[in-house]
Structure formats: C-alpha cells, structure tokens
Specification:
This protein is of the alpha/beta class. It contains 16 helices and 12 strands. Helices cover 40% and strands 14% of the residues. Helix 8 links the parallel strand 5 and strand 6. The structure holds pyridoxal-5'-phosphate. The site of pyridoxal-5'-phosphate has 15 residues, from helix 4. Pyridoxal-5'-phosphate (PLP) binds next to helix 4.
C-alpha cells in the first residue's frame, strides 16, 4: 500500500458495527473469557487488552498507522512528546550511562538531558548535527543512545541524518530521531538507517492544535541491533519484574515491547483514547497539510528574503540557508512550516509581532493557524545579551509557524507589520 492509502486505512479492522470512523474505545479495562485466558494474556501467550494503561484498541490503530507511515515495525503512543522522548532514552539508559545528543534540540529535550536525567545519573554529551564525526569522540562503552532532531526546533537546522545513523550503526548504538517538524510525510528517518523515531503528536500530527500526545516508533533494525548486544543487556537477560521474560526472545519487537511492559506499566504516561482518535483524524490529512505548510512557508521565506528591512531569513529550502545542501538531500517534498527571520533590533521585532493580525502570538508550532513568536521577549527572555548570542537567538529574531491560511493574506499581514 502507498502512504496516502495507509494514512486512511492502516490498522483499522471494522468490528460488528461496521463504523467507517475508528471508534473511540473509552474503557479502563477489558473482560477476560476465563481465568486461563487472563493468565495467557498476562504471560503474552495470547494478544489482547488487559488495562488501558498498557494498551487500548483506539490507540492501537494510531500506533499501527504511524508505525506503518514511518516504515517501522511497532509503535508506542504516550501522553506527550516529552514522555515519548523520556521513555525512548530510559528504555536503554540507566544510572552511570550516557546519551550523545545533538546540540540543536527542542528546549524541553535539553532540560530533560541536562537537568532531569542528570538527577537520575544519566549524563548527556552534545555534538554539532552537521558534523557527525564529532560523535565518535564522545562515544564510550556506556553510551546507550544518539539523539537528534531531523529538522530542529527552534533553530530550524537539518541534521546530517545519514552520517549520524551510520556512526550509530558502526558502534551498534541505538539512534533516536525526533521527526516532529518533518513528519513522515516529508521525511522518513528509518529509510536513512535510523533505529527509533519519536514524535510530539501535539504539533503537525494533530494539526489544529487540539491535543498533547507523543509516540515512539521502532524500526526492524532496532531489534536486531539490541539482540545479543552487550550494551543492551537489559533486553537480553531475564526481566525479574516480568516473570523472567527476555525481551529479545519474544515474537514482538523488543524496544517498544519493553517500553510498554516496563515503562508505561510502571510510570503510566499513557495517551487518552480520545487523543488517539484525534491523532488518527490528523494522520488522514497529514500529507496534504504538510505540502501546503511547506508551500506557504517557502513563499513567505522568499518574500521576507527580498524585503529590505529583513536582515536574514532561516529556512532550509532557501538557497542562501546553510542547511540547503542537507535539505536538498533529505527534504525533497518540502521543508515544513517553520521559519525565522531577523530584523534590525529588539524594538523593530516587537513592533512587527504586535502589528500582525492573522498570525497569533503563541508558543507552539504545527497548527493550521499561523503563529508568530519573538524568542528574545518570551521563551529566551531570561537570557543575557551574551547568552542570547550563544543560543543563536538574535534580539531581532522572529519565529513563524506558517499555517494553512492563504499565503497572499499571510504575506500581506507581514508586509503591513514590517512597514508599519
Ligand atoms: N520535540 C519537539 C521537536 C518539539 O517541538 C516539542 C514541543 O514543542 C516536543 C518534542 C515536546 O512535545 P510535547 O509538547 O508534546 O510534550
């Protein structure tokens, strides 16, 4: 099946009611046929639902659909993008281990790595995502994962994905790609050798700013890499918390199986079936939306690039952008809806943000409604001038998440605000 067909049908088998729309199974628990049936489900001898913290039929459709769209073999949905990232990391790393991560990550991932995981005894080391060779100097026997974003938020850089995943393969370390901004419609990390993909489904997957959620997707290669690998003993030795189950010795993909049966079971950041249903609706139109987001953003980037009051535009599909060679290699279908531009001063940027009418001042991305933010006065407000410069946030930097309105209206809105 081609992707557009999978996005509409994958994972859903109509039950007796024959509903065209996937039903929302709002149920905490499920009845067993007998004591023996219950015992078989608990021992994984039979497949079925026990309790919605572990699995749910609506969420199962979402997991199967996104796994298929990403080219993976299994997925685990979570309550947020952050919990998907957290689970994917602590699935492999324990106290004393370390994660090698891209220096260009979403702020929440940075604080997770540098503060929260540090408290758990897991160290983070950072590399430039355009220079995968830096990774080799950072890896040691306790490195358990290499984490990066395909298109980074907020810096809008395109990683050298193949270079990063090749190094991960050379050392048999799990690579984890946050594909939130690109989505599988524009780019599939697994095609370029990545082992695990994570998403904040709260962005383009929901698509209209409706719900928080996340998902991790496991490739076939991830399971092979983990099996009999001394770095990942926890997957290859009996798990005492699960009657001695060896995760690599079942018929299920081991990475997502362990994340489900150990982390979701014990920490419980489970996705609501209602939110799974919203994300299923989102996936049905994701491809069409991503093309429109990309088209609108490209037109706006070109307009801004030619405006005399704009100093610089950051958009990977622009020839003038340093990410252009990577965009041409990985983002053949479009560069998504995020872009940023710099004007002369803090005052000038503030004036533009205060004068737009269609764009809303919001700290989110991936909505059908266009969004504008001024990092220096909001997300990065606490930083000094020197710290702002180090973070690559100029005082006159404005970030846009370009929505699905008519591009002519969006350009007119920005033009009026810039020239006000
Ligand atoms: N990853 C990226 C690239 C993001 O932009 C975000 C949120 O902005 C997250 C992860 C976290 O996702 P959530 O807000 O769903 O927890």
């Amino acid at each position: 099946m081609k992707d557009k067909t999978k996005a509409i049908h994958e994972g859903y088998i109509k039950d007796i009611q024959k509903t065209m729309a996937v039903p929302i199974y709002m149920s905490t628990a499920y009845e067993y046929e007998s004591v023996e049936h219950a015992a078989d489900l608990f021992a994984l001898r039979d497949v079925g639902n026990i309790y919605t913290r572990i699995s749910n039929p609506t969420t199962d459709v979402f997991e199967k659909r996104i796994a298929s769209l990403e080219g993976g073999v299994a997925a685990l949905a979570t309550a947020s993008g952050m919990s998907a990232i957290f689970y994917s990391l602590v699935n492999v790393a324990k106290a004393g281990d370390n994660i090698v991560a891209s220096a260009k990550l979403y702020g929440g991932s940075v604080t997770l790595l540098t503060h929260t995981l540090k408290r758990f005894g897991i160290e983070a080391k950072f590399f430039d995502p355009h220079k995968p060779e830096e990774i080799e100097k950072l890896i040691d026997k306790n490195t358990k994962a290499i984490l990066f974003e395909s298109i980074s938020n907020p810096s809008i850089d395109v990683a050298d994905i193949e270079g990063i995943c090749n190094i991960a393969d050379k050392y048999e370390i799990i690579s984890i790609c946050d594909n939130t901004v690109a989505t599988p419609s524009l780019f599939k990390p697994i095609d370029y050798g990545c082992d695990v993909v994570v998403h904040s489904a709260s962005k383009y997957i929901t698509g209209q700013g409706l719900a928080i959620g996340g998902v991790l997707i496991e490739s076939q290669k991830a399971g092979k890499k983990i099996e009999d690998n001394e770095r990942y003993l926890v997957f290859n030795e009996p798990d005492e918390s699960y009657h001695g189950l060896v995760f690599t010795k079942t018929s299920f993909p081991p990475f997502s199986l362990r994340a489900r049966l150990s982390l979701l079971r014990d920490m419980g950041a489970v996705l609501s079936p209602f939110n799974s249903w919203l994300f299923i609706q989102g996936l049905e139109t994701l491809d069409i939306r991503m093309r429109e987001h990309s088209k609108n953003a490209f037109l706006i980037a070109k307009f801004l690039n030619s405006h005399p009051k704009v100093k610089k535009v950051h958009y990977p599909c622009l020839k003038s952008d340093e990410n252009y060679p990577f965009a041409m290699k990985y983002l053949k279908k479009g560069c998504s809806g995020l872009l940023s531009f710099e004007v002369e001063s803090f005052k000038e940027a503030k004036k533009i943000v205060d004068n737009v009418e269609i764009f809303s001042i919001v700290t989110n991305i991936g909505d059908s409604k266009s969004i504008i933010t001024h990092p220096a006065s909001t997300t990065h407000q606490q930083l000094s001038k020197k710290e702002l410069a180090a973070a690559g946030v100029a005082e006159g930097l404005i970030r846009l998440s370009v929505g699905l309105e008519d591009s002519a209206d969006l350009i007119e809105d920005l033009k009026k605000a810039i020239e006000a």
